[in-house]
Amino acid sequence: MGYRSLEECVTDLEAHGHLVRVREEVDPHLELAAIHERVFAAGGPAVLFENVRGTPFRAVSNLFGTLDRARFLFRDTLERVQRLVGLKYDPIRLLRHPIRHATTATLAPSALPRRVRRAPVMQGRTRVGLLPQIVNWPDDGGPFVTLPQVYTEDVTKPGVMGANLGMYRIQMAGNEYVQDREIGLHYQIHRGIGVHQARANAAGQPLRVSIFVGGPPAHTLAAVLPLPEGPPAVGFAGVLGNRPFRCVPAGAGP
């Protein structure tokens, strides 16, 4: 489905019996994660926590908890994406079976990121400390965002087509971090972001990092998948979601 937002996805899942709402207050320290673990283990639905203690924001979990639900989310594009991935490994298939693969050409417009000047992400500002401070395990160093999309560009080849969109753990507090001014970004140096960091260091430049939470589910899945080298993950997100990845100029917003 070409979801424009996570809200559209949640509404669609609920309408088709794939999501339940929890309206009672839930503690983000261990309790929320414990509920999620039990629902996931039972093969249960996605869960929308509407009243998370200490934050004005809601939290949703278990979106991709079952294969059936994942297939439902991308029911309009999954088959064509599978063919497209197959062609990446064996492009000669297109020549052997041009009619069979003709529909993959319709995905091309969605693969090209689109620059926009207005987007929902620009509607307001908040503080890191107001986000749901979810702690999953008693020995965690602090509250983490465990399903973010982390975007970086290569300073030697700036631009969205050479960008990396990955999923790395974001530690929002703990250690000696200054509240609302510092966070921890945990990643392995051989990942795409690590390559970008090394090149920024060599050039004597800071590495600019954008971190997104939520958004269309295609963005989340593209960030976590081990995609083949070549096309950028933002392009794959557009194809999977049947909607071009939107890019907002740096510094835009309120």
Mean pLDDT: 87
Q: Quick one: biggest sheet?
A: 3 strands, mixed
Radius of gyration equals 19 Å
* Largest sheet, spatial ordering of strands: 1-2-3
Question: Considering DSSP H and I runs of 4 or more, what fraction of the residues is helical?
Answer: 25-40%
Report the total helices.
Answer: 9
> What is the number of E strands?
11
Can you tell me the overall shape? globular
Order of helices and strands: HEHEEHHHHEEEEEEHEHHE
Low-confidence stretches are none
Q: In percent terms, what proportion of residues is strand?
A: 5-15%
Structure classification? alpha+beta
- The end-to-end distance, rounded to whole angstroms, is 30 Å
What is the domain total for the residues? 1
Briefly say what this structure is.
The chain has 254 residues and is α+β, with helices and mostly antiparallel strands. It has helices at 6-15, 31-41, 67-73, 78-89, 92-96, 108-111, 192-202, 217-224, 233-241; strands at 19-22, 46-49, 59-61, 114-115, 144-145, 149-152, 164-166, 169-171, 184-186, 209-212, 246-247. Helix content is 30%, strand content 13%.
Explain what this protein looks like in three dimensions:
The protein is α+β, with helices and mostly antiparallel strands and 254 residues long. The protein has one domain. The protein has nine helices and eleven strands. It has helices spanning 6-15, 31-41, 67-73, 78-89, 92-96, 108-111, 192-202, 217-224, 233-241; strands spanning 19-22, 46-49, 59-61, 114-115, 144-145, 149-152, 164-166, 169-171, 184-186, 209-212, 246-247. The strands form four sheets. The protein has a three-stranded mixed beta sheet. It has a three-stranded antiparallel beta sheet with strand order 5-8-9, with no helix packed on it. It has a three-stranded antiparallel beta sheet with strand order 7-6-10. Helix 8 (217-224) packs across helix 9 (233-241). It starts with 5 loop residues before the first helix and ends in a 7-residue tail after the last strand. The mean pLDDT is 87.
